[in-house]
Amino acid sequence: MDRRRHAFTLAEMLISVAILVALMGIVFGFVLSAQAAFNNADAGIQLRNIFRTANDKMAWELSHTGHDGGGNAQYIISTGTGVNGSDTIRFSVPVVCDAVTPFLDATGNPAHWGAYLTWGCDSVTCADANGACATVEYKYVQYALSATGVIVRSVLGPMLNVVSSASIADGITNMHFSVAGNQLTFSLSGQRRSLSGAMLTAATSRSVRFMN
Fold this sequence. Notes:
Blueprint: H1 10-62, E1 75-78, E2 88-91, E3 93-94, E4 113-114, E5 140-145, E6 151-156, E7 162-169, E8 172-180, E9 183-193, E10 199-209
Antiparallel strand pairs: 1-2, 2-5, 3-4, 5-6, 6-7, 8-9, 9-10
């Protein structure tokens, strides 16, 4: 009996290595594809969360503007004047400017229009600097898009001087406003780069009815 061991030839070894490399390449490709899909999904979730936050904050505040008792609009939309041809909106809302003046006038309309210094605040302390309705130091809220893709909420004085500014959302590429009757619609476009390097883009819109 021939007890000599059979050795692999060089050709057999090369074929085995080639098969192994091919299999590893397939597996590695699947891993990369799955990782990219995960990263893209994560970036998409982040973008949707950004939209949700911006939509909720802007819709809540914009719904409080509208028209005064004389039918005068308390908002101004500057179309296409912002970054990337975006719109800018400046508006006032009914405010409580001191501790004694009624919120409504004798006709049942808001007595004073202005702006709250911080989003979500509705007290005298953040509606007027000196607590006197004769002078309203915080007159307007302005939403504008910065060059870095941030929606900036600014509070402006009567002379359009900036009193304070805060970020509402980042990753925004465009912003537009339109009004039809008693309804205001705003639309946002945004983008987010995933960890895999893919740039994801999306858009959203929201409509609100004026309370005033």
